[in-house]
Amino acid sequence: MKNLCCLAVFLAMFAGCEKKPDTVYHGYGKLQIAFHHAAEGNPLQFDTMIYHSAAMYNYKVADLQYIISGVTLYRNGGEFVLPGTGGGIHYVDARIPSTRLWVTDQSIAPGTFDSLSFTFGLNAAENLSNRFPDPPLRDMAWPDILGGGYHYMKMNLVYGNSSGTVIEPFMFHLGIGQLYSSSLPNPDSITGYVQNFFRVTLLKRFIIAGSRINTINCTMQVDHWFDGPESFNFDDYPGGIMQSQPGMQKACANGRKAFSGTISN
Amino acid sequence: MPLKKLVISRIQFFRGRTVSRACLMFKGKTGRLTCFMGWMAWLLMMLTPGCNKNPGEPAAALPTPYTITIPRYFPGNLDIPADNPMTVEGVTLGRYLFYDGRLSGRTQPDSLMCCATCHVQAHSFECGIGDPRFPDGHPYGLTGIYTAHFMMPMINLVWTNHGYLWNGLVAPENPLAGVKTLEDLAWIVITSPSEIHGDTAKVAALFQTIPGYPALFKKAFGSDHVTVRNMGRALAQFIRTLISGDSRFDRFLRGEYQLTNAERSGYVLFMTEQGGDCFHCHGGDGNPLFTTNLYYNNGKDSVFSDPGDRRSVTDNPLDLGAYKAPTLRNLAFRAPYMHDGRFKTLDEVLAFYNAQLVWSPSISPLMHHIGTHGVHLTPPQLSDLKAFLLSLTDSSFVSNPAFSKPSSFPDGSK
């Protein structure tokens, strides 16, 4: 009996500790961002060699991980940054559902907004080495010798020519670029670094409704990274582009067109 | 200790700096809350005489929280289950058990076996190569059956995410009860035919009779009743203290050491995609564990016959021939290498990655040099890369007395 009493007292101690769901809006709107990934007009299928680039390659996607940061809603010429969790930095692993929904904790005064934009990757001020010692962001670390900080994106691919006689892995990784004084990417000849992050305007002229959760659907069209406006030739960059600023520059030019957004509220 | 003082000390434990090493280090609010509740339950049990199983027995003193010192740049999140917080008493008991051959459940001198039988400190807690008991570095159990794989590093396991063993079988995601945590490895090892090949009940019963042990269990877990579950908890606590973070490269990161020219050149090769490109799987300056703890098919084979690869756990054909990337720390002590010990020297490993990779449909896309069978570094570059890898040698780890065999066991035996 005493044991039961102990248990009852113990449970009673914590009965009031459970956090109740925050359903009180006070007229404000809540915001969450759902990340979707597509290729050639359909939801992305991993590990299937069914995609064809404009440069006449077949390819499949094995991994897709990336960082977005600095999500900002603009209104009336002013701006409003969503801090979200982790300082407004969000990591997406397209294979892991829990990372594909970012529930921000910000209450937003409802109304019409001019636009919503984010940084693909991390800007120079945010992209500091050893900032994230724990996985998964830890495993996005970008070598110090190559500029430091973190990968903006890791997209691991396998590609082949149209006849299927050549099949090669390709590491489509983006981060800080390097300028080399030599024709080969010898790290001892690095003369400078290039910040390759870029801003994406995802939505224009949209409404945040009050007293509810507003869901922004952010879709990355994976094939756009290779198809335009710059046609991307895998064979120009043996194995990957981490040490090829021309390759990363071309990729980033394409990447600006890879995102589209809608809002449901 | 007076009751009031005891309560205050516990509250201070949760409010003070120590709590950041105890409950706040758990991931997420749920983990921290569970940890906190676990400690509170313990506290309630200890402070409520009526709750004792044996009313006549005096209440055990509370164990002392064990503080893990996290080396600079190492991860802050520790993989410690909420129901097994680190305590000084738990670690002490775990160390005894780790080295006590009676963990086999037998007492005859030729039938003793424990963790340390194969996990030898001098070899960075592997069996190494050249040991007369395991001349080729392949451990076998008490009854002569070889283990399915060669040994994995027992280094920095307090930061092991994504499962234990070469294939990640022991992981929270495993639907089988008792095959989820480092704690569970105790009963697995005791019963495994290729290891102790023993009986858990017999082992627990034996330790119940060894003078000194029941008291240590009481100090660590509040009961002098010896159970294999608590053995697993104690062993896991000790193993989580086996932290290596003082190699030359660690000191370089901390600004205390200047790499030699060869080490620096090797470091650059290690960290560059067009060099050796080791870092994508093995970490580096952003991940000083020197492993991502993830699983890769690194191009060793084109035909696969091992029934214990990563695919055996995930059932994903793309995991065929994939194994966990081991940490590269203390390679100098850890030959042979790979899950099957096929490489006896570090030079053989480097030669493999340089020009001997073989393609298979499940090869990791990170092995982007597969088209040319390797990274094709020059001999001087290979030498530099080796120099860098050896800069990860932490001699203090293999000589740390806190990790070594106790001078005697609780019953006075040696």
Account of the 3D structure:
- The complex is a heterodimer of chains A (265) and B (414).
- Chain A has one domain.
- The longest helix of chain A is centred in the first third of the chain and has 14 residues, at 2-15.
- In chain A, a hairpin with a 2-residue loop joins strand 4 (57-75) and strand 5.
- Helices cover 11% and strands 40% of the residues of chain A.
- In chain A, the strands form 3 sheets. In chain A, strands 3, 4, 5, 6, 8, 9, 10 and 13 form an 8-stranded antiparallel sheet that branches.
- The radius of gyration of chain A is 22 Å and the shape is globular.
- Chain A contains 3 helices and 15 strands.
- Chain A has helices at 2-15, 224-227, 245-255; strands spanning 30-39, 42-43, 51-52, 57-75, 78-81, 90-93, 101-103, 111-120, 153-161, 167-174, 177-180, 190-194, 198-208, 213-221, 259-264.
- Helices cover 35% and strands 1% of the residues of chain B.
- A two-stranded antiparallel ribbon of chain B has the order 1-2.
- In chain B, helix 4 (88-99) runs antiparallel to helix 8 and helix 4 crosses helix 9 (228-240).
- The chains are: A mainly beta (265), B mainly alpha (414).
Q: What is the strand and helix layout of this fold?
A:
The complex is a heterodimer of chains A (265) and B (414).
Chain A: H1 2-15, E1 30-39, E2 42-43, E3 51-52, E4 57-75, E5 78-81, E6 90-93, E7 101-103, E8 111-120, E9 153-161, E10 167-174, E11 177-180, E12 190-194, E13 198-208, E14 213-221, H2 224-227, H3 245-255, E15 259-264
Parallel strand pairs in A: 1-14
Antiparallel strand pairs in A: 1-2, 1-7, 3-4, 4-5, 4-6, 4-8, 4-9, 8-13, 9-10, 11-12, 14-15
Chain B: H1 3-15, H2 18-22, H3 28-47, H4 88-99, H5 115-118, H6 185-191, H7 200-209, H8 213-221, H9 228-240, H10 248-253, H11 261-270, H12 279-282, E1 295-296, H13 311-314, E2 323-324, H14 346-355, H15 379-390, H16 395-399
Antiparallel strand pairs in B: 1-2
Helix pairs in contact in B: 4-8, 4-9, 11-15
